[in-house]
Every structure is written in structure tokens, then in C-alpha cells.
Backbone:
């Protein structure tokens, strides 16, 4: 009977993890094991796997990946997000452009505070492609408000 109960708990936890990954809006599902560290030798593999312990969450630290296009920043961010989502941390992935568009829309509809509160609820908010497209003054202000609220 104990074995059956343990299997049911394991099944429920696995299902909850899959649901959390699904609602996180990742553009793809690739783990750290899928990342080719040999292709990007400048990336410290040990440091990335240390980030996968999610200790940065406990320490309330932010992570910023920066570099040229095509070096694997999105892959690494998604992989770490998947680790967090599987551990049932509420996680969300969004491009910077889409985020600012949504914040601008909320601002114009006089519901910015609700939208900021919505994005502040995520334990991990992955904002991709910052700096890829230009950000106007209002967009920068709205993004700053969100980051300050978090």
C-alpha cells in the first residue's frame, strides 16, 4: 500500500511539473544536456550547472546572459527556466518586445498596476532579446517599473 501511495505522489508531482513547464510559454524545450558547450568554450559549464541548482532564487539574485546573436543565451535561459518549472517554481518566458507591448497596452487601458502585479508574481521571469529592438522612453520606463516592482 505504501508503494502505491508513493507511486501516486510521484505521478502527481510529475504531472504538476509538466503542467508548470507547459504554462511557462517556453519557445522550445531544451535542457542543459542539449547545450553544446564545446561550440561555446567561453561559457563556463560549471557555472551554468551551478545556476541550475537554483541557489540564485534563494539569494534573490538576477541572472543576465549577454553576448552576440546565436551564442546560446536563449537556450541557456530556457534550460534554467525548465529546471525551475520542473521544481514547480512559477516561471514565465517572454520577449522584451512582447513584454513592453503588453505593458504599453495596459498603460493605455489604465490597468498598468494590475499588469505589473501579474508579471511580479512569477518566481522566475525570463525576459529574452533585451536590446534586440530599440526601446522608446515610455517602454524603458515601463520595463524599469516592472523590474523595480519585482
Residues:
Amino acid at each position: 500500500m505504501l508503494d502505491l501511495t508513493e507511486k501516486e505522489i510521484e505521478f502527481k508531482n510529475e504531472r504538476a511539473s509538466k503542467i508548470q513547464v507547459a504554462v511557462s510559454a517556453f519557445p522550445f524545450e531544451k535542457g542543459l544536456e542539449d547545450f553544446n558547450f564545446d561550440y561555446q568554450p567561453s561559457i563556463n559549464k560549471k557555472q551554468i550547472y551551478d545556476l541550475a541548482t537554483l541557489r540564485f532564487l534563494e539569494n534573490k539574485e538576477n541572472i543576465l546572459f549577454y553576448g552576440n546573436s546565436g551564442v546560446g543565451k536563449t537556450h541557456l535561459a530556457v534550460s534554467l527556466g525548465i529546471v525551475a518549472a520542473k521544481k514547480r517554481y512559477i516561471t514565465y518566458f517572454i520577449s522584451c518586445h512582447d513584454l513592453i507591448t503588453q505593458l504599453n497596452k495596459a498603460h493605455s487601458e489604465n490597468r498598468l498596476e494590475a499588469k505589473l502585479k501579474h508579471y511580479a508574481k512569477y518566481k522566475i521571469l525570463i525576459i529574452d532579446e533585451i536590446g534586440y529592438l530599440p526601446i522608446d522612453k515610455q517602454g524603458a520606463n515601463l520595463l524599469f517599473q516592472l523590474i523595480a516592482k519585482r
